[in-house]
Design a protein that fits this description.
6-stranded parallel sheet, 5-stranded parallel sheet, alpha/beta, globular, Rossmann fold, 25 helices
Length: about 600
């Protein structure tokens, strides 16, 4: 065995980068490319017989792009848009970037690049360079959505319109509400998109849609699939529909809605670990007449392609979500691309336009926040990219929105003391049997949301320091090991046997039978700690993990310096998790930096659907 064979994988990949030399090695040294990006590009080039380092560099950047959520890369702007966290932008600026126009022409001539009609591993289309499979996914989603966005019938049957008017009466001005319009569209169209921020009534509209279908005297209730990308989101969707059903007087309708269960997208499509693929696809479609997908902003492009492919051509699809919040962890900005310019509700609407426009309803009236809410105003300022107004609102120092501009000042100490007191109260309650409901209410009352998982100002920092402080306050609290009364935990892997899902939060409590972990799943449920699947302590959580959750009070902790992690979508998602109060731990420069930086994932889907 030679020396190279004995190298660890990461070392072997790094050695290949060194052997590559030239542009690839330089971009790797600057932190732009990962060794795996280089290795993947070199493998493709070797198979295709490509030796031009500009083409291989482009391939490596296309591979890199998918790691950062991009479906493709735009050659003309790559130089200006590549950012490396912790790296001086001047270093990236001094790299030998090829001249864009000549670079694109060189790429187009390569044998490893095609226009999408062949089987080349890379596709160049309208200045966008794709890995072939992502080009196919985008092409498929655009076709499946576009085919469903035909002309919409103008009127509902009289019976259905009457039902809708009862479920969703006109607003104070006597006009039909946007929720009414969204449900009416979903009853008529093959594809409907219901978009809007937190508290605008998206899931309420889903409940009204199901109730309207169940209320019709003519026709059977359709076979409905309710799904979401994560177990936690699916559980919340199911609970929201159940809450809506409880408001209906007719017991038959309540019973019908109770029979509609929500699941994860993977479970709906029949993921098989052994098969490594889904049971349902275009050849074996889902049997459902109506498929409703919640939290669509979290759905990646590949997953959207797989789901839409599995829906029968004659079935209806309703996509629900917030196009303004964080996108999927994997590649794609599917919901934002589908909603497109319709997200700007202040823009004037023209009579002409692509047919998809008639299939999108954006809800913009807040039901969660009271009129005049500073949190709602701040969230709007963030979403609209207005740092001046956001800083002005923070400067008001209202009880509802409190700014903590220093990570070590008196304001931060006050916040720390508040969080510690809330956690201490939770531990006190958890030590005595019979206080399970109060413990869980204390847990869901205040949350610490961090941009970073590790390092300063991170989830790990808060967890470590809070546990140390609690150990000092309650002598011997953790002598029993990792489990102690008041320990908050988050499930990190779906457990369908226990009906506990990735993102579900519980807390350990003492009972007459010993220590148990309580979760609120439409009522409190107890589990032995040893029965839980993978989990982690959650005195704080990342902003990404908080998606789909709501808390009374939220402390949003951003890094003490500018970071690639910071975007307006991240900040918007964090502050809109709160119902009553937000503390924002960040200095003015970091706040402004986050608000002016929007997620700019490269994608061609919006252009395909909207013609932009």
């Amino acid at each position: 065995m030679n020396t190279t064979d004995r190298l660890e994988p990461a070392t072997r990949e790094s050695s290949m980068v060194v052997s590559a030399g030239g542009l690839l090695a330089a971009f790797n040294d600057a932190g732009v490319l990962d060794p795996l990006d280089v290795l993947s590009a070199m493998t493709i080039a070797r198979v295709c017989g490509e030796s031009d380092e500009q083409v291989v560099l482009a391939a490596a950047l296309a591979v890199r792009g998918t790691r950062f959520g991009h479906v493709c890369v735009r050659i003309s702007t790559l130089h200006d848009t590549v950012v490396v966290d912790g790296q001086d932008p001047a270093i990236i600026e001094t790299l030998a970037w090829p001249e864009p126009t000549g670079w694109e022409a060189t790429i187009a001539r390569s044998a490893m690049v095609g226009d999408g009609s062949g089987d080349q591993p890379l596709v160049l289309s309208d200045g966008l360079l794709y890995l072939q499979r992502y080009f196919r996914y985008e092409e498929l989603v655009a076709k499946l959505i576009g085919d469903r966005c035909g002309p919409v019938q103008t009127d509902l049957a009289g019976e259905t319109e009457e039902i809708l008017s009862r479920l969703l009466p006109p607003g104070p001005d006597g006009q039909v509400t946007l929720q009414h319009a969204a449900v009416a569209l979903a009853l008529k169209a093959e594809a409907t998109v219901i978009a809007g921020g937190p508290g605008t009534g998206k899931t309420f509209a889903v409940g009204a849609l199901l109730a309207a279908l169940a209320s019709r005297r003519s026709g059977e209730f359709p076979l409905v699939a309710l799904c979401a990308p994560t177990g936690k989101a699916a559980a919340r969707l199911g609970e929201a529909v159940a809450e809506f059903a409880a408001t209906i007087d007719d017991p038959a309708i309540r019973e019908t809605l109770a029979g509609v269960e929500a699941s994860t997208m993977h479970r709906l499509l029949g993921w098989g670990r052994g098969r490594g693929q889904f049971a349902h696809n275009a050849r074996n479609p889902l049997p459902h007449d109506l498929v409703i997908v919640d939290e669509m902003s979290m759905v990646s492009l590949p997953m959207a392609a797989k789901l839409l492919s599995a829906v029968r051509p004659d079935a209806k699809v309703v996509l629900v979500g917030d196009p303004f919040q964080l996108e999927s962890i994997e590649a794609g900005t599917v919901l934002a691309d589908i909603v497109g310019p319709a997200a700007d509700t202040s823009a004037a609407q023209t009579a002409a336009g692509p047919s998809i426009r008639d299939h999108v309803v954006v809800l913009d009236r807040l039901h969660r926040f009271e009129t005049g809410s500073v949190i709602a105003d701040f969230a709007d300022a963030v979403r609209e990219g207005n740092p001046g107004l956001a800083i002005e609102l923070l400067g008001q120092d209202s009880e509802e929105l409190q700014w903590v501009p220093e990570h070590a000042g008196s304001g931060f100490r006050d916040l720390w003391d508040t969080v510690l007191e809330r956690r201490s109260r939770m531990v006190e309650l958890a030590m005595t049997p019979g206080h399970e409901q109060e413990v869980f209410e204390a847990l869901s009352g205040t949350a610490v949301l961090c941009a970073r998982r590790n390092g300063p100002d991170s989830v790990a920092w808060w967890r470590w320091n809070l546990e140390m402080a609690l150990d000092e306050r309650f002598t011997g609290l953790r002598y029993g090991g990792e489990w102690y009364p008041g320990r908050p935990v988050m499930i990190t892997r779906n457990d369908y046997n226990l009906s506990l899902y990735n993102g579900d939060i519980g807390v350990a409590v003492e009972t007459d039978e010993g220590l148990r972990v309580v979760f609120d799943r439409g009522g409190l449920r107890m589990f032995l700690p040893s029965h839980l699947s993978e989990h982690t302590t959650v005195h704080a959580m990342t902003i990404h993990k908080s998606q789909g959750s709501q808390f009374d009070e939220v402390a949003v902790v951003l890094p003490g310096e500018r970071s690639r992690l910071l975007t307006r979508e991240l900040l918007y998602t964090a502050v809109t998790r709160a119902k009553r109060k937000v503390w924002l731990v960040a200095d003015e420069d970091v706040v402004r930096h986050a608000i002016v930086r929007s997620v700019q994932r490269a994608s061609g889907l919006r252009s395909r659907l909207w013609g932009e």
